[in-house]
Design brief:
Radius of gyration: 19 Å
Order of helices and strands: HEHEHEHHHEHEHHHEEE
Number of strands: 8
Structural class: alpha/beta
Shape: globular
Bound molecules: pantoate
Distance between the termini: 39 Å
């Protein structure tokens, strides 16, 4: 990978990078298109990162569809697909390896119910950036907290990588595209679109002047429960810091995480 990057960079070409865990869907393909627009060469990585999965999470069952993924990327003028093994990335036991962690932001919202998850994300993204040395990296905004955390890591550690976020791609009923949607049965799949409906209705309420965010969050939780979700959180936060909004906060993010059976779904919108 480094030899290839060196060849490209020494002839003055720029490199765009899309890190993924594979099982590529339309949302990922949008990221690749964006990287293509912004750089001469595009690298996509596929690595199901064990460090970002908790003990009882879906690491073993996470969909692995390497051949189909490569076929999809062939149609999109990707210059290289980087598929490291777990030994390449973690030559030692994970708990004996160095890590990178963004404090505080990694322990709120999804970080509160998935301890260690964001440490796993920032560590692997750091390693991938060190290998691929991209000029820009493209991430989906469906994982909004992840985007903000990686952006902070890049800023804090002075990494020479431009961070680009791409808007969520949705199914026709509004459900955000996600590899985990494949876990849903038919009935759950229908229920799942409620998340986006609730996000949109909270957004409308705020645009119409409501400022009682705690009450709005509570109403959102109630609506999710009513249609069969076990909500983790509904949160209205400052879109830049993910902190509780202050009077002067200009941009808000409304974020939801909720369980439908054994599947944990997340989504967000900003205003
Ligand atoms: O969003 C993902 O697919 C993963 O968290 C990432 C950024 C590829 C790191 O493993």
């Amino acid at each position: 990978m480094r030899t290839l990057i060196h060849e490209w960079k020494s002839s003055g070409q720029t490199v765009g990078f899309v890190p993924t865990m594979g099982n590529l869907h339309e949302g990922h393909l949008k990221l690749v298109e964006e990287a293509n627009k912004r750089s001469d060469r595009v690298v996509v990585s596929i690595f199901v990162n064990p460090m970002q999965f908790g003990e009882n999470e879906d690491f073993d069952n996470y969909p692995r569809t390497q051949e189909q993924d490569i076929e999809k990327l062939k149609g999109l003028s990707t210059d290289a697909v980087f598929i490291p093994s777990a030994d390449d990335i973690y030559p030692e036991q994970i708990d004996r390896s160095s890590f990178v962690e963004v404090p505080e932001l990694s322990t709120i919202l999804c970080g509160a119910s998935r301890p260690g998850h964001f440490r796993g994300v920032t560590t692997v993204v750091n390693k991938l950036f060190n290998i691929v040395q991209p000029d820009c990296a493209v991430f989906g905004l469906k994982d909004y907290q992840q985007f903000i955390i990686i952006k902070k890591m890049v800023d804090d550690l002075k990494m020479p990588v431009q961070m680009i976020g791409v808007e969520t791609v949705r199914e026709s009923d509004g459900l955000a595209k996600s590899s985990r949607n494949g876990y849903l049965n038919q009935q759950q799949r229908q229920q799942a679109a409620t998340i986006y409906e609730i996000l949109r209705s909270i957004k409308t309420e705020i645009q119409q002047g409501r400022k009682d965010y705690l009450a709005l969050e509570k109403e959102g939780l109630g609506q999710l429960e009513k249609v069969g979700f076990k909500p983790d959180y509904v949160a209205i936060r400052c879109a830049e810091s993910l902190q509780v909004p202050a009077a002067e906060t200009r941009t808000l993010a409304i974020l939801v995480a909720a369980w439908l059976g054994n599947t944990r779904l997340i989504d967000n919108i900003r205003l």
